[in-house]
Amino acid sequence: MPEPSLSEARTPDAPVTRQPAPGTSGISRRALIGTAGATGLALGAAGGAVGYAAAPAEATPLTSVGSDRAMFHGKHQPGITDGLQARGHLVAFDLAAGAGRKEAAALLRRWSATAERLMAGEAAPHGDTDVARDAGPSSLTVTFGFGHSFFGRTGLEKQRPTALDPLPAFSSDRLDRSRSDGDLWVQIGANDALVAFHALRAIQKDAGSAARVRWQMNGFNRSPGATAHPMTARNLMGQLDGTRNPKPADADFDRRIFVPASGEPAWMANGSYAVVRRIRMLLDDWEKLSLPAQEAVIGRRKADGAPLSGGGETTPMDLEKADAKGEYVVPLNAHARITRPDQNGGAAMLRRPFSYHDGIDADGTPDAGLLFICWQADPLRGFVPVQRKLDRGDALSKYIRHETSGLFAVPGGAAKGEYVGQRLLEG
Protein backbone atom coordinates (compact mmCIF):
# COMPACT_ATOMS: atom_id res chain seq x y z
CA MET A 1 0.00 0.00 0.00
CA PRO A 2 2.82 2.27 -0.76
CA GLU A 3 3.56 5.59 -2.19
CA PRO A 4 6.47 7.07 -3.99
CA SER A 5 8.63 7.60 -1.46
CA LEU A 6 8.13 8.28 2.11
CA SER A 7 11.89 8.44 2.41
CA GLU A 8 13.55 8.64 -0.95
CA ALA A 9 12.95 12.22 -2.06
CA ARG A 10 14.52 15.30 -0.64
CA THR A 11 12.60 18.41 0.16
CA PRO A 12 13.85 21.49 -1.69
CA ASP A 13 16.77 22.91 0.27
CA ALA A 14 15.67 26.52 0.26
CA PRO A 15 13.14 28.90 -1.25
CA VAL A 16 14.19 30.00 -4.70
CA THR A 17 12.37 33.31 -5.06
CA ARG A 18 12.60 35.29 -1.87
CA GLN A 19 12.81 39.01 -1.32
CA PRO A 20 11.39 41.60 1.07
CA ALA A 21 8.03 43.06 0.18
CA PRO A 22 8.49 46.09 -2.08
CA GLY A 23 8.70 49.50 -0.51
CA THR A 24 8.96 48.22 3.03
CA SER A 25 12.68 47.86 3.74
CA GLY A 26 11.85 44.24 4.50
CA ILE A 27 8.81 45.11 6.61
CA SER A 28 5.48 43.90 5.30
CA ARG A 29 2.71 46.40 4.85
CA ARG A 30 0.91 44.06 7.19
CA ALA A 31 3.60 44.48 9.84
CA LEU A 32 2.56 46.92 12.49
CA ILE A 33 4.04 44.78 15.23
CA GLY A 34 6.98 42.41 14.70
CA THR A 35 8.77 40.21 17.20
CA ALA A 36 10.75 42.48 19.46
CA GLY A 37 13.95 41.13 20.95
CA ALA A 38 13.94 37.92 18.92
CA THR A 39 17.30 36.49 17.95
CA GLY A 40 18.31 36.63 14.33
CA LEU A 41 16.52 39.84 13.38
CA ALA A 42 17.30 40.22 9.71
CA LEU A 43 16.54 43.88 9.09
CA GLY A 44 16.95 47.24 10.78
CA ALA A 45 14.03 49.23 12.10
CA ALA A 46 12.14 51.39 9.66
CA GLY A 47 10.00 54.31 10.67
CA GLY A 48 6.58 55.17 9.37
CA ALA A 49 5.76 51.83 7.70
CA VAL A 50 2.20 51.60 6.52
CA GLY A 51 0.04 48.57 7.35
CA TYR A 52 -3.71 48.25 7.49
CA ALA A 53 -3.80 51.40 9.63
CA ALA A 54 -1.33 54.11 10.55
CA ALA A 55 1.85 52.55 11.93
CA PRO A 56 3.74 53.67 15.02
CA ALA A 57 6.54 56.13 14.44
CA GLU A 58 9.07 53.32 14.95
CA ALA A 59 7.97 49.92 13.62
CA THR A 60 9.69 46.83 14.95
CA PRO A 61 11.36 44.84 12.19
CA LEU A 62 10.10 41.40 11.34
CA THR A 63 12.22 38.35 11.94
CA SER A 64 13.51 36.59 8.86
CA VAL A 65 10.66 34.08 9.07
CA GLY A 66 8.04 36.81 8.80
CA SER A 67 9.78 38.86 6.11
CA ASP A 68 10.54 36.02 3.69
CA ARG A 69 8.46 36.43 0.54
CA ALA A 70 7.78 34.22 -2.46
CA MET A 71 6.90 35.84 -5.78
CA PHE A 72 3.50 35.29 -7.37
CA HIS A 73 4.49 36.10 -10.97
CA GLY A 74 7.13 34.01 -12.67
CA LYS A 75 7.91 31.22 -15.11
CA HIS A 76 6.42 28.64 -12.77
CA GLN A 77 3.74 28.94 -10.13
CA PRO A 78 4.96 29.33 -6.54
CA GLY A 79 4.76 26.43 -4.12
CA ILE A 80 6.58 23.90 -6.30
CA THR A 81 10.30 24.49 -5.91
CA ASP A 82 10.01 26.65 -2.77
CA GLY A 83 11.25 25.14 0.48
CA LEU A 84 8.88 23.23 2.74
CA GLN A 85 6.62 25.49 4.79
CA ALA A 86 5.55 25.01 8.39
CA ARG A 87 1.81 25.12 7.65
CA GLY A 88 -0.26 24.05 4.69
CA HIS A 89 -3.84 23.78 3.49
CA LEU A 90 -5.06 21.79 0.50
CA VAL A 91 -8.55 22.50 -0.80
CA ALA A 92 -10.49 21.27 -3.83
CA PHE A 93 -13.54 22.97 -5.34
CA ASP A 94 -16.25 21.89 -7.73
CA LEU A 95 -17.82 24.48 -10.00
CA ALA A 96 -21.39 25.29 -9.03
CA ALA A 97 -24.31 24.04 -11.13
CA GLY A 98 -24.60 26.27 -14.18
CA ALA A 99 -21.10 27.73 -13.81
CA GLY A 100 -18.95 27.34 -16.89
CA ARG A 101 -15.94 28.80 -18.65
CA LYS A 102 -16.94 32.45 -18.09
CA GLU A 103 -17.46 31.96 -14.35
CA ALA A 104 -14.26 29.93 -14.06
CA ALA A 105 -12.26 32.70 -15.75
CA ALA A 106 -13.70 35.32 -13.39
CA LEU A 107 -12.90 33.09 -10.41
CA LEU A 108 -9.28 32.50 -11.44
CA ARG A 109 -8.93 36.24 -11.99
CA ARG A 110 -10.16 36.91 -8.44
CA TRP A 111 -8.03 34.18 -6.94
CA SER A 112 -4.90 35.37 -8.71
CA ALA A 113 -5.40 38.97 -7.55
CA THR A 114 -5.91 37.80 -3.97
CA ALA A 115 -2.90 35.48 -4.05
CA GLU A 116 -0.63 38.20 -5.43
CA ARG A 117 -1.60 40.63 -2.64
CA LEU A 118 -1.44 38.11 0.20
CA MET A 119 1.94 36.76 -0.94
CA ALA A 120 3.24 40.35 -0.83
CA GLY A 121 2.08 40.67 2.78
CA GLU A 122 -0.84 42.93 1.89
CA ALA A 123 -4.50 42.77 2.83
CA ALA A 124 -6.95 40.83 0.68
CA PRO A 125 -8.48 42.99 -2.08
CA HIS A 126 -11.85 43.04 -0.34
CA GLY A 127 -13.40 41.84 2.91
CA ASP A 128 -10.10 41.19 4.65
CA THR A 129 -10.58 39.39 7.97
CA ASP A 130 -7.56 40.91 9.78
CA VAL A 131 -6.42 37.42 10.81
CA ALA A 132 -2.87 38.09 9.58
CA ARG A 133 -2.79 41.81 10.33
CA ASP A 134 0.48 41.83 12.29
CA ALA A 135 2.44 39.32 10.22
CA GLY A 136 4.67 39.57 7.19
CA PRO A 137 4.38 37.39 4.08
CA SER A 138 5.92 34.46 5.98
CA SER A 139 6.84 32.63 2.75
CA LEU A 140 3.18 32.34 1.74
CA THR A 141 2.58 30.53 -1.55
CA VAL A 142 -0.73 29.90 -3.31
CA THR A 143 -0.83 27.41 -6.19
CA PHE A 144 -3.75 26.61 -8.52
CA GLY A 145 -4.54 23.50 -10.56
CA PHE A 146 -7.27 21.96 -12.73
CA GLY A 147 -8.75 18.49 -12.30
CA HIS A 148 -9.92 16.12 -15.04
CA SER A 149 -13.59 17.05 -14.53
CA PHE A 150 -12.92 20.79 -14.94
CA PHE A 151 -12.62 20.54 -18.71
CA GLY A 152 -15.98 18.90 -19.24
CA ARG A 153 -17.71 21.45 -17.02
CA THR A 154 -16.23 24.35 -18.98
CA GLY A 155 -16.52 22.95 -22.51
CA LEU A 156 -12.75 22.71 -22.84
CA GLU A 157 -12.46 18.96 -23.39
CA LYS A 158 -10.19 19.45 -26.42
CA GLN A 159 -7.72 21.27 -24.20
CA ARG A 160 -7.56 18.52 -21.58
CA PRO A 161 -4.00 17.07 -21.45
CA THR A 162 -3.62 13.34 -21.97
CA ALA A 163 -1.31 13.39 -18.92
CA LEU A 164 -4.41 14.22 -16.87
CA ASP A 165 -6.06 10.87 -17.63
CA PRO A 166 -7.28 9.26 -14.38
CA LEU A 167 -4.67 7.38 -12.40
CA PRO A 168 -4.95 3.59 -12.56
CA ALA A 169 -6.30 1.67 -9.59
CA PHE A 170 -3.69 0.37 -7.16
CA SER A 171 -4.19 -2.62 -4.89
CA SER A 172 -3.21 -0.53 -1.89
CA ASP A 173 -5.95 2.08 -2.44
CA ARG A 174 -8.70 2.50 0.15
CA LEU A 175 -9.99 5.71 -1.36
CA ASP A 176 -12.74 7.97 -0.08
CA ARG A 177 -14.09 9.37 -3.35
CA SER A 178 -15.79 12.29 -1.60
CA ARG A 179 -12.34 13.52 -0.52
CA SER A 180 -10.61 12.83 -3.84
CA ASP A 181 -10.29 14.69 -7.16
CA GLY A 182 -12.22 17.94 -7.83
CA ASP A 183 -12.62 20.51 -10.60
CA LEU A 184 -10.12 22.95 -9.07
CA TRP A 185 -7.31 22.50 -6.56
CA VAL A 186 -5.55 25.09 -4.41
CA GLN A 187 -2.38 24.51 -2.39
CA ILE A 188 -1.56 27.04 0.33
CA GLY A 189 1.64 27.06 2.36
CA ALA A 190 3.23 29.52 4.80
CA ASN A 191 5.62 29.59 7.74
CA ASP A 192 2.97 31.11 10.01
CA ALA A 193 -0.28 29.31 10.84
CA LEU A 194 -2.41 32.46 10.85
CA VAL A 195 -1.00 33.64 7.50
CA ALA A 196 -1.86 30.25 5.97
CA PHE A 197 -5.38 30.24 7.44
CA HIS A 198 -5.92 33.83 6.34
CA ALA A 199 -5.14 32.82 2.75
CA LEU A 200 -7.41 29.78 2.95
CA ARG A 201 -10.30 31.90 4.19
CA ALA A 202 -9.74 34.53 1.50
CA ILE A 203 -9.67 31.91 -1.27
CA GLN A 204 -12.86 30.31 0.05
CA LYS A 205 -14.66 33.67 0.23
CA ASP A 206 -13.51 34.57 -3.29
CA ALA A 207 -15.15 31.41 -4.62
CA GLY A 208 -18.51 33.02 -3.93
CA SER A 209 -21.34 31.37 -5.84
CA ALA A 210 -19.06 30.10 -8.62
CA ALA A 211 -17.66 27.08 -6.78
CA ARG A 212 -18.14 25.08 -3.60
CA VAL A 213 -15.59 23.30 -1.45
CA ARG A 214 -15.37 19.58 -2.26
CA TRP A 215 -12.77 18.70 0.38
CA GLN A 216 -10.14 20.41 2.50
CA MET A 217 -7.07 19.12 4.40
CA ASN A 218 -4.59 20.71 6.79
CA GLY A 219 -0.91 19.90 7.18
CA PHE A 220 2.31 20.94 8.87
CA ASN A 221 6.07 20.56 8.78
CA ARG A 222 8.87 21.45 11.15
CA SER A 223 9.19 25.21 11.64
CA PRO A 224 12.18 27.02 10.12
CA GLY A 225 14.98 27.39 12.65
CA ALA A 226 13.81 24.50 14.84
CA THR A 227 17.01 22.55 14.13
CA ALA A 228 20.60 23.62 14.65
CA HIS A 229 21.16 23.63 10.89
CA PRO A 230 19.00 23.07 7.79
CA MET A 231 18.29 19.39 7.30
CA THR A 232 15.95 16.96 5.58
CA ALA A 233 12.54 16.94 7.24
CA ARG A 234 11.23 14.03 9.31
CA ASN A 235 7.81 12.46 8.87
CA LEU A 236 5.54 11.17 11.63
CA MET A 237 7.28 7.80 11.57
CA GLY A 238 10.43 9.59 12.66
CA GLN A 239 12.23 8.94 9.38
CA LEU A 240 14.13 11.53 7.38
CA ASP A 241 11.79 12.06 4.47
CA GLY A 242 13.22 13.51 1.29
CA THR A 243 16.78 12.34 0.84
CA ARG A 244 16.70 11.70 -2.91
CA ASN A 245 14.48 14.51 -4.16
CA PRO A 246 15.54 16.01 -7.50
CA LYS A 247 17.20 19.38 -7.01
CA PRO A 248 16.79 22.51 -9.15
CA ALA A 249 20.55 22.43 -9.73
CA ASP A 250 20.30 19.03 -11.45
CA ALA A 251 20.86 19.22 -15.20
CA ASP A 252 17.65 17.30 -15.93
CA PHE A 253 15.48 18.90 -13.22
CA ASP A 254 13.27 20.98 -15.52
CA ARG A 255 12.82 18.11 -17.95
CA ARG A 256 11.58 15.82 -15.19
CA ILE A 257 9.42 18.28 -13.29
CA PHE A 258 8.05 20.84 -15.76
CA VAL A 259 6.25 20.68 -19.10
CA PRO A 260 8.59 22.19 -21.71
CA ALA A 261 7.77 25.54 -23.32
CA SER A 262 7.17 23.67 -26.58
CA GLY A 263 5.02 21.03 -24.89
CA GLU A 264 1.38 20.12 -25.45
CA PRO A 265 -1.09 21.47 -24.80
CA ALA A 266 0.44 24.93 -25.23
CA TRP A 267 -1.36 26.38 -22.21
CA MET A 268 0.57 23.94 -19.94
CA ALA A 269 3.98 25.33 -20.97
CA ASN A 270 6.23 25.56 -17.88
CA GLY A 271 3.54 23.90 -15.79
CA SER A 272 3.61 20.64 -13.86
CA TYR A 273 1.30 17.85 -12.72
CA ALA A 274 0.55 17.34 -9.03
CA VAL A 275 -0.44 13.97 -7.60
CA VAL A 276 -2.08 14.45 -4.20
CA ARG A 277 -2.59 11.50 -1.84
CA ARG A 278 -3.65 11.39 1.82
CA ILE A 279 -1.61 8.54 3.28
CA ARG A 280 -2.61 7.43 6.75
CA MET A 281 0.28 6.03 8.79
CA LEU A 282 -0.63 3.12 11.05
CA LEU A 283 1.52 4.50 13.81
CA ASP A 284 0.47 2.08 16.54
CA ASP A 285 1.68 -0.86 14.44
CA TRP A 286 4.79 0.99 13.28
CA GLU A 287 5.86 1.99 16.77
CA LYS A 288 5.69 -1.63 17.97
CA LEU A 289 8.60 -2.47 15.66
CA SER A 290 12.13 -2.45 17.04
CA LEU A 291 14.53 0.14 15.67
CA PRO A 292 16.39 -2.44 13.51
CA ALA A 293 13.05 -3.67 12.12
CA GLN A 294 11.97 -0.12 11.23
CA GLU A 295 15.29 0.51 9.51
CA ALA A 296 14.96 -2.73 7.53
CA VAL A 297 11.51 -1.65 6.28
CA ILE A 298 12.89 1.65 5.03
CA GLY A 299 16.43 0.59 4.10
CA ARG A 300 17.99 3.57 5.90
CA ARG A 301 19.20 4.40 9.40
CA LYS A 302 16.59 6.30 11.38
CA ALA A 303 19.09 8.59 13.12
CA ASP A 304 20.70 10.16 10.06
CA GLY A 305 19.01 8.73 6.95
CA ALA A 306 22.15 6.95 5.79
CA PRO A 307 21.61 3.78 3.72
CA LEU A 308 22.03 0.51 5.60
CA SER A 309 24.90 -0.25 3.23
CA GLY A 310 26.93 2.49 4.97
CA GLY A 311 28.07 6.09 4.65
CA GLY A 312 26.06 9.25 5.23
CA GLU A 313 22.62 10.42 4.17
CA THR A 314 23.64 11.26 0.61
CA THR A 315 25.95 8.25 0.10
CA PRO A 316 24.77 6.16 -2.87
CA MET A 317 23.06 2.98 -1.73
CA ASP A 318 25.01 -0.22 -2.40
CA LEU A 319 22.25 -2.62 -3.43
CA GLU A 320 24.62 -5.56 -3.79
CA LYS A 321 26.27 -5.36 -0.36
CA ALA A 322 25.69 -8.48 1.76
CA ASP A 323 26.23 -9.33 5.42
CA ALA A 324 28.21 -12.24 6.86
CA LYS A 325 25.25 -14.58 6.23
CA GLY A 326 25.06 -13.61 2.58
CA GLU A 327 21.86 -11.60 3.03
CA TYR A 328 21.43 -8.24 1.34
CA VAL A 329 22.14 -5.42 3.82
CA VAL A 330 19.36 -3.42 2.18
CA PRO A 331 16.45 -5.91 2.02
CA LEU A 332 14.89 -6.63 -1.36
CA ASN A 333 11.55 -5.20 -0.25
CA ALA A 334 12.98 -2.14 1.52
CA HIS A 335 11.12 1.04 0.59
CA ALA A 336 14.32 2.89 -0.26
CA ARG A 337 15.47 0.15 -2.66
CA ILE A 338 12.15 -0.07 -4.51
CA THR A 339 11.74 3.67 -5.00
CA ARG A 340 15.20 4.43 -6.35
CA PRO A 341 14.95 6.10 -9.79
CA ASP A 342 17.61 3.79 -11.19
CA GLN A 343 15.37 0.87 -10.24
CA ASN A 344 12.38 2.42 -12.01
CA GLY A 345 13.64 3.39 -15.44
CA GLY A 346 14.70 6.82 -14.20
CA ALA A 347 11.18 7.74 -13.02
CA ALA A 348 11.47 10.77 -10.78
CA MET A 349 9.18 13.25 -9.08
CA LEU A 350 9.63 16.20 -6.75
CA ARG A 351 8.00 15.40 -3.44
CA ARG A 352 6.78 18.34 -1.36
CA PRO A 353 4.51 16.94 1.36
CA PHE A 354 2.92 18.03 4.61
CA SER A 355 2.31 15.84 7.64
CA TYR A 356 -1.20 15.82 9.09
CA HIS A 357 -2.94 14.88 12.34
CA ASP A 358 -6.74 14.95 12.32
CA GLY A 359 -7.42 13.76 15.85
CA ILE A 360 -7.68 10.44 17.66
CA ASP A 361 -10.30 7.83 16.83
CA ALA A 362 -12.63 6.37 19.46
CA ASP A 363 -10.35 3.34 19.83
CA GLY A 364 -7.35 5.59 20.53
CA THR A 365 -5.84 5.26 17.06
CA PRO A 366 -4.29 8.49 15.74
CA ASP A 367 -5.63 9.70 12.39
CA ALA A 368 -2.24 10.93 11.23
CA GLY A 369 0.09 10.59 8.31
CA LEU A 370 1.26 12.35 5.17
CA LEU A 371 -0.40 14.70 2.72
CA PHE A 372 1.70 13.42 -0.15
CA ILE A 373 2.19 15.90 -2.99
CA CYS A 374 4.52 15.13 -5.88
CA TRP A 375 5.33 17.13 -8.99
CA GLN A 376 6.37 15.83 -12.40
CA ALA A 377 6.25 16.69 -16.08
CA ASP A 378 4.19 13.56 -16.78
CA PRO A 379 2.60 11.43 -14.03
CA LEU A 380 2.52 8.38 -16.32
CA ARG A 381 6.33 8.51 -16.33
CA GLY A 382 6.80 9.79 -12.77
CA PHE A 383 4.28 8.67 -10.17
CA VAL A 384 2.57 5.73 -11.86
CA PRO A 385 5.53 3.37 -12.55
CA VAL A 386 6.93 3.84 -9.05
CA GLN A 387 3.55 3.26 -7.42
CA ARG A 388 2.96 0.14 -9.48
CA LYS A 389 6.28 -1.27 -8.32
CA LEU A 390 5.52 -0.38 -4.71
CA ASP A 391 2.20 -2.18 -5.11
CA ARG A 392 4.06 -5.41 -5.83
CA GLY A 393 5.96 -5.75 -2.57
CA ASP A 394 7.01 -2.70 -0.56
CA ALA A 395 7.74 -3.58 3.09
CA LEU A 396 6.23 -0.24 4.13
CA SER A 397 2.82 -1.04 2.66
CA LYS A 398 1.49 -2.82 5.77
CA TYR A 399 2.09 0.34 7.84
CA ILE A 400 0.34 2.89 5.60
CA ARG A 401 -3.08 3.30 3.97
CA HIS A 402 -3.88 5.44 0.91
CA GLU A 403 -7.21 7.11 1.67
CA THR A 404 -7.63 9.88 -0.93
CA SER A 405 -6.21 10.68 -4.36
CA GLY A 406 -6.18 13.49 -6.89
CA LEU A 407 -4.34 14.47 -10.04
CA PHE A 408 -4.21 18.11 -11.17
CA ALA A 409 -2.78 20.04 -14.10
CA VAL A 410 -0.94 23.06 -12.70
CA PRO A 411 -0.23 25.59 -15.48
CA GLY A 412 2.89 27.72 -15.63
CA GLY A 413 3.17 30.94 -13.70
CA ALA A 414 1.19 34.03 -14.60
CA ALA A 415 3.04 36.91 -16.23
CA LYS A 416 2.56 40.39 -14.86
CA GLY A 417 -0.97 41.48 -15.70
CA GLU A 418 -2.16 37.89 -16.24
CA TYR A 419 -4.09 35.51 -14.02
CA VAL A 420 -3.31 31.82 -13.59
CA GLY A 421 -4.93 29.74 -16.32
CA GLN A 422 -5.64 32.72 -18.59
CA ARG A 423 -4.06 31.06 -21.60
CA LEU A 424 -6.43 28.10 -21.17
CA LEU A 425 -9.59 30.04 -20.37
CA GLU A 426 -9.12 32.82 -22.91
CA GLY A 427 -7.05 30.98 -25.52
From TrEMBL:
GO molecular function, one term: lyase activity
Reactions listed under catalytic activity: heme b + 2 H(+) = protoporphyrin IX + Fe(2+)
Cofactor list: heme b
EC nos: 1.11.1.-
Cofactor notes: Binds 1 heme b (iron(II)-protoporphyrin IX) group non-covalently per subunit.
Subcellular location: Cell envelope
Domain Dyp-type peroxidase C-terminal: 232-414
Protein keywords: Heme, Iron, Lyase, Metal-binding, Oxidoreductase, Peroxidase, Signal
Keyword Heme carried by entry: yes
The UniProt record lists the keyword Oxidoreductase: yes
InterPro entries (UniProt xref): Dimeric_a/b-barrel (IPR011008), Dyp_perox_C (IPR048328), Dyp_perox_N (IPR048327), Dyp_peroxidase (IPR006314), EfeB/EfeN (IPR006313), TAT_signal (IPR006311)
Positions of the Dyp-type peroxidase N-terminal domain: 77-221
Any one Pfam family match given in the protein's UniProt record, by short name: Dyp_perox_C
Enzyme class: oxidoreductase
Region of interest (Disordered), ranges: 1-27
Biological role stated in the UniProt entry: Involved in the recovery of exogenous heme iron. Extracts iron from heme while preserving the protoporphyrin ring intact.
Family assignment from sequence similarity: Belongs to the DyP-type peroxidase family.
NCBIfam families: Dyp_perox_fam (TIGR01413), tat_substr_1 (TIGR01412)
Protein name as annotated: Deferrochelatase
